[in-house]
RNA sequence: GGAGAGGUGGGUGAGUGGCUGAAACCAACAGUUUGCUAAACUGUCGUACGGGUCAAACUGUACCGGGGGUUCGAAUCCCCCCCUCUCCGCCA
């Protein structure tokens, strides 16, 4: 959520930034915020004046009562009643304006950072880095959804039987490969100074609002209505919400947490082309890194996080490209996002396996996540997160790219974790 | 699910109708002292939205889990809701 005072001070700059998202009529929305803000101020001022008078009178009445001057006190009470009536009249409309303002602010996405290109779709993303060469496979190479059947390592039918489409069952070496990847990712993160967190995989409503999944993306999360809990779509939600309503001690910065969790996404209506096999699931595993930084350090942290994620892909020997997302392709909370996509050689497609974002103060404002700086001033912090990494598509790419006539070769770095070097 | 206790500032915690935006302690910050560190001492120290100012000083309002109510006046009394803890039950 943007801060009203920032909108007030930097109206033009904010509109210019938001235009990069390809939004229409954004200037109207911003001006609506400003005009509601003016109205709010006026009304609040009136209200404050009324209340101020009441407070003075209340004190006087108190004193008069003490000194036994009842008649005089009664006279003042009449005036108080009048004031009370007026504040009562003003109250509801003030509330309405505040609610409207709040709703409007929730609906305005974060302002893209300066270097974010404008654009509407993935077409406008910019490839800023590549690693490796997309390999050409043998004639008889097959996509991962055939390989998992051939080697009997992931079973979609069983998942359908016990849960539904998009809930695969990992079996034997398939399960071990998953576990190996999770451990590998967690160990690597720890080497980079991240603290491991095991959060709940359900969160309450307040947490959903804190990181911005609510109210806009309500339909994306599984909702346990009996208890009003949401299954997390990413570990970002619980791990970032650890710091909701927190005044961080400056000495505890920077905060670097990593967590492995299953993630749940309803992805309602998005089934169809390009979502076969492991490409898109309702439940999947992911290791997520989350940082909380001082504003002046957050872009340095973003670079660090990208390089870290890239190092994982390089260790796994997966060809990848790094994209700077255009305004229209970024999530609403993000100020800047880099996506990492690995090449799945049998599908001949790039698969997104990581998304690294700086939210600047957008989340922190909702979260009320702040610290006191050296001057003793309370300041919003910056939040960042990145997948490091999302498992299924990594698995898909490993299976496809590493297939040989004898079986699937396990990446060298993973062998100590899997304790086998081929799936056959 | 049943019974009880409780939710106060960055933290612990006092506060049962006006003198309380809130004691005390801790933390933090600034300074004094000091060979350095530590200790000691002194001072500052909640948040939001306004007014005011070049900026301050200063100043208004609201906020003691959330929402309503009683009252001239509520952290304090009443009602509803949420959450936490303890005991019992159930489960692991």
Total number of strands: 18
- Count of discrete domains: 2
Largest sheet: 8 strands, mixed
Reported by name, the CATH topology of the largest domain is: BirA Bifunctional Protein, domain 2
Query: Mind telling me which CATH architecture of the largest domain this is?
Result: 2-Layer Sandwich
Give the C-alpha Rg.
27 Å
Q: How much is the average pLDDT?
A: 91
- Helices and strands: which structural class? alpha+beta
CATH homologous superfamily descriptor of the largest domain: Bira Bifunctional Protein, Domain 2
| Residues in β-strands, percent | 15-25%
Describe this structure in words.
The structure is a single chain. With 424 residues, this protein is an alpha+beta fold. It folds into 2 domains: 4-107, Helix Hairpins, CATH 1.10.287; 122-423, BirA Bifunctional Protein, domain 2, CATH 3.30.930. The protein has helices at residues 4-9, 11-19, 26-66, 70-107, 144-150, 156-162, 173-191, 205-211, 236-241, 298-315, 362-367, 391-401, 415-418, and strands at residues 126-131, 154-155, 169-170, 195-197, 202-203, 223-224, 229-231, 247-248, 255-264, 283-293, 320-324, 336-344, 349-360, 370-372, 378-380, 382-390, 408-409, 422-423. A hairpin with a 4-residue loop joins β6 and β7.
């Amino acid at each position: 959520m943007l801060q009203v005072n920032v909108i007030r001070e930097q109206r033009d700059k904010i509109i210019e930034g938001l235009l990069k998202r390809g939004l229409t009529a954004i200037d109207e929305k911003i001006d609506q915020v400003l005009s509601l803000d003016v109205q709010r101020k006026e009304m609040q001022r009136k209200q404050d004046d009324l209340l101020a008078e009441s407070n003075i009178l209340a004190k006087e009445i108190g004193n008069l009562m003490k000194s036994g001057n009842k008649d005089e006190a009664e006279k003042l009470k009449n005036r108080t009643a009048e004031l009370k009536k007026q504040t009562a009249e003003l109250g509801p409309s003030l509330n309405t304006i505040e609610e409207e303002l709040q709703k409007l602010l929730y609906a305005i996405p974060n302002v893209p950072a300066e270097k974010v290109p404008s654009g509407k779709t993935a077409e406008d993303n910019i490839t800023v880095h590549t690693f490796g060469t997309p390999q050409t496979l043998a004639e008889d190479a097959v996509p991962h959804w055939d390989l998992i059947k051939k080697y009997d390592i992931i079973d979609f039918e069983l998942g359908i039987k016990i849960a539904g489409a998009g809930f695969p069952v990992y079996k034997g070496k398939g399960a071990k490969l998953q576990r190996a990847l999770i451990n590998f990712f967690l160990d690597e993160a720890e080497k980079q100074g991240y603290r491991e967190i095991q959060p709940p995989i359900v969160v309450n409503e307040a947490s959903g609002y804190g990181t911005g999944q609510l109210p806009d993306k309500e339909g994306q999360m599984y909702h346990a209505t009996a208890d009003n809990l949401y299954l997390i779509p990413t570990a970002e939600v619980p791990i970032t919400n650890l710091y909701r309503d927190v005044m961080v001690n400056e000495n505890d910065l920077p905060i670097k947490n990593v967590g492995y969790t299953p993630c749940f996404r309803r992805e309602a209506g998005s089934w169809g082309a390009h979502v076969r096999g492991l490409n898109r699931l309702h439940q999947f595993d992911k290791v997520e890194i989350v940082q909380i930084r001082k504003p002046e350090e957050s872009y340095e942290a973003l670079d660090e996080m990208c390089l870290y994620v890239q190092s994982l892909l390089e260790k796994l020997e997966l060809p990848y490209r790094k994209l700077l997302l255009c305004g229209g392709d970024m999530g609403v909370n993000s100020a800047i996002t880099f996506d990492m996509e690995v090449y799945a050689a049998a599908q001949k497609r790039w698969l997104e396996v990581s998304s690294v974002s700086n939210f600047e103060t957008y989340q922190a404002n909702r979260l009320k996540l702040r610290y006191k700086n050296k001057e003793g001033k309370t300041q919003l912090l910056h939040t960042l997160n990145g997948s490091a990494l999302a498992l299924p598509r990594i698995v898909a790419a490993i299976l496809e790219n590493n297939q040989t006539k004898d079986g699937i070769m396990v990446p060298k770095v993973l062998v100590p974790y899997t304790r086998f070097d081929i799936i056959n």
